[in-house]
UniProtKB/TrEMBL annotation:
<keyword id="KW-0539">Nucleus</keyword>
<dbReference type="InterPro" id="IPR001005">
    <property type="entry name" value="SANT/Myb"/>
</dbReference>
<dbReference type="Pfam" id="PF23082">
    <property type="entry name" value="Myb_DNA-binding_2"/>
</dbReference>
<keyword id="KW-0805">Transcription regulation</keyword>
<keyword id="KW-0804">Transcription</keyword>
<feature type="domain" description="Myb-like">
    <location>
        <begin position="14"/>
        <end position="63"/>
    </location>
</feature>
<dbReference type="InterPro" id="IPR044636">
    <property type="entry name" value="RADIALIS-like"/>
</dbReference>
<dbReference type="GO" id="GO:0003700">
    <property type="term" value="F:DNA-binding transcription factor activity"/>
</dbReference>
<dbReference type="InterPro" id="IPR009057">
    <property type="entry name" value="Homeodomain-like_sf"/>
</dbReference>
<protein>
    <recommendedName>
        <fullName>Myb-like domain-containing protein</fullName>
    </recommendedName>
</protein>
<dbReference type="GO" id="GO:0005634">
    <property type="term" value="C:nucleus"/>
</dbReference>
Length: 91
């Protein structure tokens, strides 16, 4: 990606920087699914840069993206440092 910000899904209403994504991931680890007012806490963890609705939507898009990756609908890109699977040899 050419820019320093990323969007999850094509319908995201706000852009998130890589730093914000990392902060969001840490917040999800701190405030798990059993946490009361989880999305309010996550939004507060983001330092006021994202609303409750933005963090909730970002999570929904993340879940959808992970499901697509796990189902094989998103191609895995091979880079020069890692050969494609057909050239890997088992030892």
């Amino acid at each position: 990606m050419a820019s320093n910000s990323t969007k999850l899904g094509s319908s995201s209403s706000s852009e998130w920087t890589r730093g914000e994504d990392k902060m969001f991931e840490r917040a999800l680890a701190v405030y798990d699914t059993d946490t009361p007012d989880r999305w309010h806490n996550v939004a507060r963890y983001m330092g006021g840069t994202k609303s409750v609705e933005e963090v909730r939507r970002h999570y929904q898009l993340l879940v959808r993206d992970v499901a697509q990756i796990e189902s094989g609908r998103v191609p895995f890109h091979w880079y020069a440092a890692a050969p494609p699977p057909r050239t890997l040899q088992r030892g």
